[in-house]
Amino acid sequence: MAEVKLTQLDKSYDGGKTFVLKNINLHIEDGEFVAFVGPSGCGKSTLLRMICGLEEITDGLLELDGEHSNDMPPNERRVGMVFQSYALYPHMTVRENMEFGLKLAKANKAEINRRVDEAARILQLEKLLDRKPKAMSGGQRQRVAIGRSIVQEPRLFLFDEPLSNLDVSLRVQMRQELSRLHNKLKTTAIYVTHDQVEAMTLADRIVVLSPLADGAESNLEQVGAPLALYHNPCNLFVASFIGSPKMNFFRAAIVEPGQKETRIKLECGTELRVCNDTRNARAGDKVTLGIRPQDVLNHEEADGAENCITGTIETIERLGNESFIYLNHPDIHEAFIARVEDSLRRQPGAEFHVGVPAENCHLFDASGVAFSRTRSPVFD
Amino acid sequence: MMAMVQPRNLKYRVWAARIVMILLLCLVMFPFLMILSVSFRTGNFATGSLIPENPSLEHWAMVLGFEYTAADGSVVKPTFPVLTWLWNSLKVSFTTSALILMLSTTGAYAFARLRFRFKNHLLTSMMILQMFPAVLALVAFHAFFNKLGGVVPWLGLNTHSALVMSYLGGITMHIWLIKGYFESIDVALEESAYIDGATPWQAFRYILLPLSVPILAVVFVLSFIGVIGEYPIASVLLQGVDQLTLAVGMKQFLYAQNYLWGDFAAAAILTGMPITVVFLMAQRYLVNGLTAGGVKG
């Protein structure tokens, strides 16, 4: 059981010329399940390795349970870690793998057996205890890796993309097992993943990291509950990272700023009404409009309806319960995707009208910072 | 059985391969059989038929230290302590190989896992230095141990410890070999040992070393073979007849006027025996796939 506090943490591999992580401030409460997410190269694994002591801290302060821990060697931090590659000891059986740490700590035999048997029971590994890792499947190996850290009864669990080597169905299953395990053990956990679905489903709080841009003050973008990040992303990066498929972004400009409602105009000329507080902006300011593919309306029939963006159809992904329509639009940043509930076949090249409800819109200023939403949905 | 489509003439190809292999085997075995034949041949002749016409045990009696009564009734006494030489060789080879193993594993660990300044320079300069044959430094070895013997008698000339110490200089190749093997082992294994509470030494001892057994066996065999057959340094450092190793001692059979090829051959086979035994013992450690299953490949 542990509290983790990071204060102005920096990481540089070349003595301060370039930084991988900069100015990371984070307070993880006892018993919390926190996920670090971000694209590859954002330093999330490095941050995790700094917390467990496998990577040196260039600058800043790491406190475990209020104790200054920057220079504590990993074997004294009492953390458990599950590696992406499992990192099981290949020359030892499952039982020996799980006993290893306890034997080093010179625990007595009865205690070792009790803990190993209990971990094996929780993770359903009883029948595999005498096997070597090479005789097991990926999911079983991952369970052993988790078991190996459970038996140590660490104060902090660290997971470094533990499920990314598993196939999809196993990943969903293991995700639920991890969730169950956390509810049972209530140990503080930090979970690194690039899969935002894993982060959304497992974590109490999500920490979004970005690859450090030139001159940026920090690469910690936002910290918050999963739904808070989903509904109120604080900037373009978080908005585009959380949610699948990605949010659609349009180049636009403010026509009439306001506290409750704002009128904006896409570059192509389409005028829209959005529910964002832009009282500090001026008419003519360049902004980015964001709308999630799931938040749009199918206005196929109602040509010329209010708050409507028209694009031409490129391709359609029909998934049975829903379809994603990929559209072309002159003002779109990357891709324009609309979710519809039918499975109709549509002609590529045809026009398609997408309704954008004003209360579902996100608005970002020229530097990418979000204008707050005035009518965002209720969530707990 | 592999479920693979095989061409129809596979049988002929298998036979062709077998014939080539048998020919190759003959080529390799021929020198050995010749030496064996010389060692059982009456008199000291390097040439003759492969199966001795008058087989005799005189040379073997000589090297194993027995008196031999020849057919004409004359008794030949063994002239040299060949078994002592064999014992010396074994002693030096085993000690050297064991020490080389200790030094090169720890050295390789430093080069493979630790970060320190001038690491690469050190590695390449060691490599370049090792490229010069040790023979070039013979005089240096002699002078060095001569002086050292004045201070530390047991490390002076004509001692086995001096010989072992001079051999320990030649571990660069072994360091490179082991370093390459260490680098093929995922560092995450040791990292997870640290997380499990292991000190760096414990991670090295309980995780890295057990996984490196095949390369350790290779290094042991290689250094054993190298040392047991080494001549130049041993011939300079060792002087007393009782201190000689087999490789140096054997030279005593080859006088300028009289080459005792028969005794030489018997001693040569004696030298080969420990190598064979060491190799057979090491073979069970030369297994593949020791690290399989540890990490997702």
Task: Please tell me about this protein's structure.
The complex is a heterodimer of chains A (380) and B (297). In chain A, α2 (94-104) runs parallel beside α4 (138-150). Chain A has helices spanning 44-52, 94-104, 109-122, 138-150, 168-185, 196-202, 226-231, 236-241; strands spanning 4-11, 21-28, 33-37, 59-64, 67-68, 79-82, 156-160, 188-193, 205-209, 220-224, 248-256, 262-266, 271-274, 286-291, 297-298, 308-318, 323-328, 336-340, 351-355, 362-365, 370-371. Chain A is 22% helix and 30% strand. Chain B is mostly helical. Helix content of chain B is 63%, strand content 1%. Chain B has helices at 10-39, 58-64, 82-113, 119-131, 138-151, 160-168, 172-183, 187-195, 200-211, 213-228, 232-237, 246-249, 261-283; strands at 68-69, 75-76. In chain B, β1 and β2 form a beta hairpin. In chain B, α3 runs parallel beside α6 (160-168). The relative contact order of chain B is 0.13. The model of chain B has no long low-confidence stretch (mean pLDDT 89). Classes of the chains: A alpha+beta (380), B mainly alpha (297).
Topology of helices and strands:
The complex is a heterodimer of chains A (380) and B (297).
Chain A: E1 4-11, E2 21-28, E3 33-37, H1 44-52, E4 59-64, E5 67-68, E6 79-82, H2 94-104, H3 109-122, H4 138-150, E7 156-160, H5 168-185, E8 188-193, H6 196-202, E9 205-209, E10 220-224, H7 226-231, H8 236-241, E11 248-256, E12 262-266, E13 271-274, E14 286-291, E15 297-298, E16 308-318, E17 323-328, E18 336-340, E19 351-355, E20 362-365, E21 370-371
Helix pairs in contact in A: 2-3, 2-4
Chain B: H1 10-39, H2 58-64, E1 68-69, E2 75-76, H3 82-113, H4 119-131, H5 138-151, H6 160-168, H7 172-183, H8 187-195, H9 200-211, H10 213-228, H11 232-237, H12 246-249, H13 261-283
Antiparallel strand pairs in B: 1-2
